[in-house]
Amino acid sequence: MTRESVGLVDIARAAGVSRSTASRALRGEGRVSPETVERVKRVAQSLGYVPDLRASALASKSLNTVGIMLRASERSFYGEIAARIQSGLERRGMDLIIANGGGSDTSQMRAVNSLLGRKVAGLIIASGRASIAVAQYAASFGPVALVGLSSPSPTIDSIVIDPDSERYLARRVLAQGHRVVAVTTALADVSRTLHDRAEIFISELRAGGADVVDIGPAAEGGEAVDRAVATAVDAGATAIMTGDDTTMLAVLERLADQGVAVPRQMSVTGFDGVGVFASPLLGFTTMRQPVEQLGDTAVRLLTSRISGVASQARHLCIPGQYLPGRTLGSAPSH
Question: Which of 48, 88, 267, 294 is a plausible cystine mate for 263, CB 3.0–4.6 Å?
Answer without folding.
Answer: 267
